[in-house]
Amino acid sequence: MAWIALFFAGLLEIVWAVSMKQSEGFSRLTPTIITLVGMIASFWLLAVAMRTLPLGTAYTIWTGIGAVGAFVVGILFLGEQVSAMRIGAAVLIVCGLVLMKLSSS
């Protein structure tokens, strides 16, 4: 259950990060509301996951899902730069997430 909560917390981190970008510095109401609701829900699910998962594992996985997810959304939907170095960095993050998951008890 904790891993499922953590996965959805990470997905919501992507949602709030993208909506924060779309809010244009919190000057647009709808994206600002989505950002705030997404943050609250993401933090709540992270807290649920941390009931049983170690802090370092839960936080690393949560931020990793959010970082790689936001990176992918930025490329696919926001026209952000694609380069071998950026993709390599994302691959390294994913490798770190896999190692963190494998090392958790």
From TrEMBL:
Superkingdom in the source lineage: Bacteria
Topology term for the membrane: Multi-pass membrane protein
Record keywords: Cell membrane, Membrane, Transmembrane, Transmembrane helix, Transport
SUPFAM superfamilies named among the record's database cross-references: Multidrug resistance efflux transporter EmrE
Transmembrane segments annotated in the record for this chain: 33-50, 57-78, 84-102
Gene Ontology terms: biological process: xenobiotic detoxification by transmembrane export across the plasma membrane
InterPro entries in alphabetical order: EmrE-like, Small_drug/metabolite_transptr, Small_multidrug_res
GO cellular component, one term: plasma membrane
Subcellular location: Cell membrane
Cited Pfam families: Multi_Drug_Res
GO MF annotations in UniProt: transmembrane transporter activity
Family: Belongs to the drug/metabolite transporter (DMT) superfamily. Small multidrug resistance (SMR) (TC 2.A.7.1) family. Gdx/SugE subfamily.
Protein's name in the database: Guanidinium exporter
Annotated organism of origin: Stenotrophomonas tumulicola
